[in-house]
Write a sequence for this structure.
């Protein structure tokens, strides 16, 4: 599935929620289900700076597609990561680099994009794209 | 008679909504809200007599200078400093601390010692680390116990003839503990060390008397006591301020400049280089007037009532742990829910219109001590109510339900 198609799917899912509580409960549940990062990658090097909660991201490339795994010590942050991984993992690096992230606004999580938000959604997206850029250079 | 409903009407922001809910503002230890009386002073300044001070011969400049200097006198009276020129306007507490730290860099030498407390805010640690690096002095730390109180026995052991400076906050920002600064000052003076007290967290709740305390330096920020951001004050004993070299070069701080030599201006201008935050200083004075009109005894009594009420209510939540349990504390409650990250709790509370602080509160050493990533911190001001505390308690219960 393309990044855009996945984003639309997520927008559809979120449109069924009536209020913030349902949205957040869903994210919390996503966070609980998030497959954890392998312990060997839970290193300080893999911590994303700018997050009040700790966030670890690991990336590797298989068959020209970037696979992400991640973890956080805060559950809502984990839910956000779960959504990001669903969108960006197992995609071609070029598609990750070019993807826009308007869907975050559309699913009512815009407040997490504010620079004051210490969960660092912005830093997370930046980090995922940085990995994609790095892998894209390998492919060139 | 203290009527909180009446007081709340002074604060326009308290009637706004956040996320569709009435705002519950419990982040007062980060910054306090501003009453209309102070907002009016700010508007009046820019509407009627905005001018640069201390240098113009024209009417506006003189008017602005007069009102600005009146504010200095208000601050002097409030803190009971002996002289108005012992009050230096700063951009805030951090600026004041850096000013003193910088001044001591020309006084300290290798082998000298500085003592700080384990309850410090980052801003109170970093300048001293830098100072030690510059001078070869050593930094010593007064540890704290499980209740979040400083261990005075250890302080006494750390203190010796090499101690030149002791830095401690009057009240801890992360835990709310009120430190025994009277004792610390007396002991430090007995070995000839100077004492700087960070009053950022105390000044919103109590009225310190610098002469009575016999403190050498005391710093505060206006924005924590109903004033605007970007302005604060440093009190320094005259003899100390004369001893310290200027912090920044620029206009206003010089008496005479030739290419060979600059003579520094007298106090307080020696430390006030450049155009200051004139409006901020004036509004700081107005904020002090506002708080004194209510009365610090009244404020302390009411806030203590809020603290006791909130402590009791929050403690009844299963799995909630409060950090900082000293008997001597201000209206700050730092807590965590078992197994739940403070950030998650803060996020849910925000959705309910409740503003708290989450994280390490710029006091990472304290968090390391308790081995936690941070806490949720609710800090109350005299304009908060028990009804708001009930909303917080309900919010925490809801967050717990959603997150566990």
């Amino acid at each position: 599935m393309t990044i855009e198609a996945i984003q639309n799917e997520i927008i559809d899912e979120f449109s069924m929620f009536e209020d913030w509580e349902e949205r957040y409960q869903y994210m919390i549940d996503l966070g609980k289900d998030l497959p954890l990062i392998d312990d060997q990658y839970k290193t300080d090097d893999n911590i994303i700076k700018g997050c009040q909660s700790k966030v670890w991201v690991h990336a590797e490339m298989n068959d020209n597609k970037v696979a992400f795994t991640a973890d956080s010590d805060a559950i809502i942050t984990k839910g956000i990561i779960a959504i990001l991984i669903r969108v960006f993992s197992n995609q071609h690096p070029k598609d990750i680099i070019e993807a826009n992230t308007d869907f975050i606004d559309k699913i009512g999580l815009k407040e997490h994009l504010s620079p004051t938000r210490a969960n660092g959604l912005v830093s997370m997206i930046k980090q995922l794209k940085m990995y994609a850029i790095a892998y894209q250079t390998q492919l060139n | 008679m203290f009527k909180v409903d009446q007081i709340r009407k002074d604060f326009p922001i308290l009637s706004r909504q956040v996320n569709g809910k009435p705002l519950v503002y419990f982040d007062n230890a980060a910054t306090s809200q501003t009453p209309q009386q102070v907002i009016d002073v700010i508007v009046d300044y820019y509407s009627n007599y905005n001018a640069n001070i201390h240098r113009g011969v024209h009417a506006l400049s003189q008017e602005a200078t007069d009102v600005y200097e009146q504010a200095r006198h208000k601050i002097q009276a409030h803190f009971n400093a002996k002289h108005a020129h012992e009050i230096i306007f700063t951009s805030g507490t951090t600026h004041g601390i850096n000013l003193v730290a910088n001044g001591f860099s020309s006084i300290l030498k290798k082998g000298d010692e500085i003592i700080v407390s384990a309850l410090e805010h980052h801003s109170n640690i970093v300048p001293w680390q830098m100072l030690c690096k510059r001078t070869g002095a050593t930094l010593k730390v007064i540890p704290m116990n499980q209740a979040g109180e400083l261990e005075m026995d250890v302080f006494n052991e750390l203190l010796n003839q090499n101690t030149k400076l002791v830095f401690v906050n009057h009240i801890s920002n992360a835990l709310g503990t009120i430190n025994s600064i009277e004792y610390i000052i007396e002991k430090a003076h007995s070995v000839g060390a100077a004492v700087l007290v960070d009053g950022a967290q105390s000044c919103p709740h109590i009225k310190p008397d610098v002469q009575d305390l016999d403190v050498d330096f005391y710093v505060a920020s206006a924005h924590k006591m109903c004033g605007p951001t970007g302005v604060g004050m440093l009190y320094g004993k005259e003899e100390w301020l004369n001893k310290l070299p200027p912090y920044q070069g620029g206009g206003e701080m010089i008496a005479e400049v030739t290419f060979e030599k600059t003579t520094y201006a007298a106090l307080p201008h020696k430390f006030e280089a450049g155009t200051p935050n004139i409006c901020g200083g004036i509004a700081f004075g107005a904020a002090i007037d506002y708080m004194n009109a209510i009365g610090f005894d009244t404020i302390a009594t009411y806030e203590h009532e809020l603290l006791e009420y909130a402590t009791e209510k929050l403690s009844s939540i299963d799995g909630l742990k409060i950090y900082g349990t000293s008997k001597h504390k201000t209206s700050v409650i730092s807590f965590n829910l078992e197994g739940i990250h403070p950030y998650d709790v803060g996020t849910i509370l925000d959705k309910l219109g409740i503003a708290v602080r989450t994280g390490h509160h710029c006091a990472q050493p304290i968090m390391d001590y308790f081995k936690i990533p941070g806490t949720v911190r609710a800090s109350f001001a005299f304009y908060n109510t028990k009804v708001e505390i009930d909303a917080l308690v309900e919010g925490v219960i809801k967050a717990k339900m959603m997150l566990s």
Notes: Chain B has two domains: 4-30+295-403, 39-293. The longest strand of chain B covers residues 163-169. Residues 59-79 of chain B form the longest helix (21 residues). Chain B has 14 helices and 17 strands.
